[in-house]
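Look over this today:
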Amino acid sequence: MTRELAAGLMLALLVVALLLAWWGWRHRVGRHRDLPELLASSEVSVRPERVHSLLYVATTQSDAPLERIARRPLAFRARVNLGSGPDGLWLDIAGEDEVFIPSAQLIAVGRATWTIDRVVDSDGLIFVRWQWGEREVDSYFRSVDFPAEDVQRAVEVALSNDTKEDA
């Protein structure tokens, strides 16, 4: 009878742990309900000039770098085709609809060594700071097949286009 009791207790603890994880994720998603839907790339008539195959790592609030944004399509780490051009950025994340971030929303691009749960070699991550609704966020990408400098320069094209339009 002791073995059955221990197995039942372990099963009950597993169910409680899974329920708590589910509740925690739902709570995190709820904190980001104010974020507007991203523009579907199908609603944009222009297409990217360059596309890089990267790893999408995370999107965080720029003032809270340990606060992962849990909003689709940017909630989970995945492969991404990052398109860039003077009009903005296209994010085609595996398993999600392709979205477009206009150059007017882009703030900065740079290099980083860490984010949330990922530490890489020096300047191994590329971050893009942009405005999502009322929040300033940083999206992190890891380049595997392309030199990170090439990806950063491609994103800078969208940033410089926005600067020229404002001048």
Remarks:
- The chain has a mean pLDDT of 80.
- The CA atoms of residues 78 and 95 lie 8 Å apart.
- Residues 1-30 form one domain.
